[in-house]
Amino acid sequence: MGPIWSSYYGNCRSLLFVVDASNPTQLSASCVQLLGLLSAEELAEASVLILFNKIDLPCYMTIEEIKSLIRLPDLIACAKQNITTIEISARKGTGLSDVLRWLQDTHKTNG
Ligand SMILES: Nc1nc2c(ncn2[C@@H]2O[C@H](COP(=O)(O)OP(=O)(O)OP(=O)(O)O)[C@@H](O)[C@H]2O)c(=O)[nH]1
Questions:
Q1: Which of 22, 32, 45, 100 could form a disulfide with 57 if both were Cys (CB 3.0 to 4.6 A apart)?
Q2: Which CATH architecture group holds 14-110?
Q3: Domain locations in the chain?
């Protein structure tokens, strides 16, 4: 779906980017997509939430290792956007209240 994402950029104030944390083989492709989003001029003002999903599944890498592999600290430091990360399980509901809180806070701040 990546090639058509740009048609949704207009008036986008919040961006939720979901990473499948149970499958590190997709990480490099996922990171390229994320870098493309973060460098898009139309999204410079958006608040970004990166969700590490499927944390209920076993994985050979920890979330910290995944963050380090995609150089998340550098990415956050260099991006124009305000970036937050939350670890979730969409299946079990873990972390979803934090996501709702982020949405509420973000939209409150943005007016
Ligand atoms: N265990 C688990 N499964 C999940 C979670 N979130 C989604 N799934 C399941 O993962 C499967 C694929 O869903 P998604 O990953 O959302 O869909 P997708 O991105 O099109 O699929 P992939 O590219 O294959 O990951 C579905 O069967 C979902 O029920 C989660 O947090 N935990």
A1: 22
A2: 3-Layer(aba) Sandwich (3.40)
A3: 14-110
Task: From the CA of 89, give the closest atom in ligand 1.
Answer: 31
The helix/strand/coil state of 110 is helix
Residue 35, CA distances (Å) to 9, 71, 74 in order:
14, 11, 12
ipTM score of the complex? 0.88
If one residue of 53, 59, 94 were mutated to test the ligand 1 pocket, choosing by the most ligand atoms within 8 A of its CB, it would be 53
Which amino acid makes up residue 67? K
What would the pLDDT profile of 9-45 be if each residue is shown by its tens digit? 998 999 999 999 999 999 999 999 999 999 999 999 9
In the chain, the amino acid numbered 6 is S
